[in-house]
Design a protein that fits this description.
alpha+beta, 38% helix
Length: 108
């Protein structure tokens, strides 16, 4: 609902995360702005997703980050490939932000 989401979202994420009232995040991205946007893959949108993850951290959010709102396509009618991409991208963001996965197996 912002005309320039790339500028507005990071402070908004921090503000809401600090309230302790977010229980699950569907991590998605858009291109465009208020009343004129499209859902895109997380690496194609206007919002810097690494900065978004860091904003959740700064705000104190420690819950799940789930891929969400990936575009639809005839190339992946069951949404399996795109969801796999979203999961891998989210994991990469968490690693880049220094988040240690819970329940992770020790390296062999």
């Amino acid at each position: 609902m912002f005309s320039e989401p790339a500028k507005a979202m990071i402070p908004v994420i921090e503000e809401f995360a600090a309230t302790g009232r977010i229980f699950q995040v569907h991590l998605g991205n858009i291109r465009g702005g208020y009343l004129d946007f499209q859902q895109v893959f997380p690496d194609e949108g206007d919002v810097d997703m690494l900065q978004a993850v860091k904003a959740y951290q700064r705000g104190g959010y420690g819950g799940p980050l789930c891929p969400g709102y990936l575009p639809a396509s005839d190339l992946d009618t069951d949404h399996e490939r795109f969801m796999a991409f979203g999961l891998g991208y989210t994991r990469g963001l968490l690693q880049a932000a220094g988040v240690q996965p819970t329940g992770a197996r020790p390296a062999r």
